[in-house]
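Supplementary Note 3. Input sequence used for the single-chain structure prediction.
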Amino acid sequence: MNNTRRDFMKLGAVTLAGALLPPVSRASENIAPPESQSAIVSPPLAAAGLRLLTFAAPDHPGSPRVGVLQPSGDRIMDLGEAAQRQGKKLSFDPSQMLSLIAAGDSALTEVRELLVHAEAGDGLLLKDVKLLAPIPVPARNVYAVGWNYVDHFKEGEGLRNASTTPKELPDHPVFFTKGSHTINAPFGTIPYDPNVSTQIDWEGELAIIIGKRGKNIPEVSALDHVLGYAVINDTTARDIQQKKHGGQWFKGKSLDGHGPLGPWIVVTSGMGSEALDFNNLPLFTRINGVVKQEANTKEMYFKVPRIVSELSLGLTLEPGDIIATGTPPGVGFARKPPEWLKPGDVMETEIVGIGTIRNTIVAVG
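The predicted structure, written as discrete structure tokens, is reproduced below.
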């Protein structure tokens, strides 16, 4: 272990000591924290893990900046500003998350060094900035996996078109994509246009962020290509998905703003055994404070290495690619009677160890 990483781990261990207690599930309460409470920082499972984010500062609302959440959890370090202050040259553009990701391990080392040499009180208060999606404009469509929780597959039985869908879980992951314009801020509003769809549904999911280019990646080395993870909601227009366009999913999954992502990327690359355990993360979706989905990523049918490996067969994955890994049971269309999002509803998606995103449904058109 090099000295920089050891120093950073010591810094994280001291400042996050109180947050390392076992997280308390809010599912039993069925009520979300009040709006005045931040509630976006779940107790970290890896104290030394970087949390990379994109934000807009109050004095420059139209200029996205790349930052990192400081170990205290209440401040953000602007990487460009910190590098300038510390007299260090960066190997990436500090206004573009995709540039940081493409720069690879050297960029992560630079970020860790900036944190180690930061002084108390450096940076902006988290509450004073506007968080954007970590990758506001993906270079390509968002990849996604369907039917990756057994109980979600079962809850849809009898509601799917029997002539076009399998009766049993497939032997290989079901892949589809969401248009890049679906990506929304972690606290952005989700548009609701009744002239387009009146059956908007929720799907809380773990998102994989690819960090290293690869093709035909062996499953055993798939995690070497993963930068980290974020929270995503694969918000879906069910009437479009199921009743139009021949049952093909793309359009119903690709309405503008129907893919909130964030609140940041929890980096696992280079962390080894200290990394966030993607195989054991509690996941919740709440609508107006009521828990609708409660699961754990250990219940995923196809695990992260299998997903990355199979998706890469004959298909090159690029740094910054986003893969939504599938949703657990509890979606609206499978409820009796069905439940749909409507203007004014507040949708919260939480993965313990990563954080919470909160999105309000707003009428448009």
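The first strand starts at residue 51 and ends at 57. Confidence is low (pLDDT under 50) at residues 1-37, 43-47.
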